[in-house]
C-alpha cells in the first residue's frame, strides 16, 4: 500500500517530468532537431501521470477521501505543476 508520503513523492516526480518535457525535451526537438528526447521524456511523463491518477483513486479509497477531494486531486494532476499544489492539501499545510 502506498502512503501519503510516497504519493507526494510520486507527485513531485510527475511535476519534475513535466518540467523536463517542456524545458529540456521540447527545445531539443524544435530548436536542435532531436525528437527522440520528446519520445523518451514524454513517455516517462505519461507513465508517471497514469500511475499518479490511478494511485490517487487507490489512496482515496484506502484513506477515506471525500469525492470532492479526489476530484481536486485529479484536476490538479491535469494542471501544469498542479500536483505540487495538491501536495499542500495532503500534507495538511495551508
Structural class, by secondary structure, is mainly alpha
Order of helices and strands: HHHH
Instruction: Count every helix, treating DSSP H or I runs of 4 or more residues as helices.
Output: 4
- Count of β-strands: 0
The overall pLDDT average reads 92
Distance between the termini: 26 Å
Low-confidence stretches: none
Report the portion of residues in β strands. Answer: under 5%
Question: Could you say how many structural domains there are in total?
Answer: 1
Radius of gyration from the CA trace? 15 Å
Amount of helix: over 70%
Describe the main β-sheet briefly.
none
Taken from the alpha-carbon principal axes, the silhouette is: elongated
Describe the structure.
Helix content is 82%, strand content 0%. The protein has 94 residues and is mostly helical. The chain has one domain. The two termini are 26 Å apart.
Keywords:
94 residues; mainly alpha; 0% strand
Précis, in short:
The chain contains four helices and no strands.
How is the topology of this model organized?
Blueprint: H1 4-30, H2 36-63, H3 67-78, H4 82-91
